[in-house]
Amino acid sequence: MFPGADLDPVLTGLLRVPLTVDVVDALADGPATFSALRVRLRVRRRHLDQALRVLAAHEVIRRRDHYGSWDQPAPSGAPCELTGTGWELARRLERCEVWVAIYDYYLHHPA
User: Fold this and answer.
1) Which of 39, 56, 83, 107 is 20 to 30 A (C-alpha) from 66?
2) Is residue 3 part of a domain?
3) How far apart, in whole angstroms, are the C-alpha atoms of residue 4 and residue 67?
């Protein structure tokens, strides 16, 4: 592993789920609704929903003005935002050495 890359099991687990990095990157620009994320990322509802649930389960994102279960549809227009953990993850993903470590990890640990 690369020293200082902070490549941990949580990060490698999140990376195995499609769109998680894309969602974190999009929300680093500010809160966004489900519809806005879907348009920005050009993805199917099902795939975005899966990524959002995984990120919420790892406390990377939360919904504003809605603290209920992610099993229920969000109220119309309820934006998602990064949590403190999400901001930390976004900062880690900005570092080149993290991506080198990720590449190296998946080169030696294929899915």
Assistant:
1) 39
2) no
3) 35
